[in-house]
Specification:
By secondary structure, the protein is α/β, with parallel strands linked by helices. It has a single domain, classed as 4-Layer Sandwich (Purple Acid Phosphatase, chain A, domain 2). It has 5 helices and 16 strands. The strands form 3 sheets. It has a 6-stranded mixed β-sheet, covered by helices on one side. Strands 5-6-7-9-8 form a 5-stranded mixed β-sheet, covered by helices on one side. Strands 12-13-14-16-15 form a 5-stranded antiparallel β-sheet. A hairpin with a 2-residue loop joins strand 15 and strand 16. The radius of gyration is 20 Å and the shape is globular. The relative contact order is 0.18.
Length: 288
Amino acid sequence: MQAKIATSKRFNIVSLTDWHCPYHDEKALEVALAFCKLIQPQIIIIHEAHDFYSLSSFDKDPNRINSLQEEIDQVTKYFWALRKLCPKSRIILLGSNHLYRLRKYLWRQAPAFAGLRSLEIPKLLDLDTFKIEYKDTFTFRDVLFKHGNKVSSHSAYTAKKEFEKEGMSGVTGHTHRLGQYYATKRGGSYTWIESGCLCDLNPEYIEGTPDWQHGISLVSFEPKGKHFYAYPIPIVNYEIHWGDTTICLKDKSAKYTVGLTAGIRRPQAGTKGKKQNGRIEKNIKPNK
């Protein structure tokens, strides 16, 4: 056997996309945050955490219009929880079409206020408090992270379009689908990921069943150099299966609000914890 096995600590980037608070799925978001707690990624990419529904130019259902401040406060609680769970991670919030609703609203309805620093996204969302950076896009070792603005009919079709537009590997959200596209060109091999979503999969404004999937994505780099592996990670029935580890909710029927009651289950002998059905369960809670 000529192949050899080498192990090394990885440099991990996790993308958490399309929450659309207050129309998020609390349980899916709980599991996604628990995954971040488990692997402690060096970088966490967030986009479309806010919905900003009340600022939309589309016709609005008055029953859905909540206080914009309440929406911001709700996301702030998740930002606070994520920072507590991953104190050393670099966290980056990317610009997206829903965040840009604020800028467009000011341009149309209140141009006199458009230049106020207090209404700029980093200030309005108090990102400095959580040491969260704000960028339109982010590139790390030739992998591009952006929200995206293309939507195709099927999983991974949008990923193909994004690759053809950018000509490099990358990760996007926006479609609410999970998918991955691969391409080999003269310059090398490339991949593009659609990261799924963490929002409600059955919104009342869509007739029928939307072709959306809960999930997140991971791009894992070697410590030095540009080699990496990347793939979408589905959240099915509020569970992530990660090697021999299952990240899940203890009670899927309960209502969760930043409770971070998701846990991990590992079939390892000698692990301290509470046994359930022959597996080990360990609660994940914010660091104090």
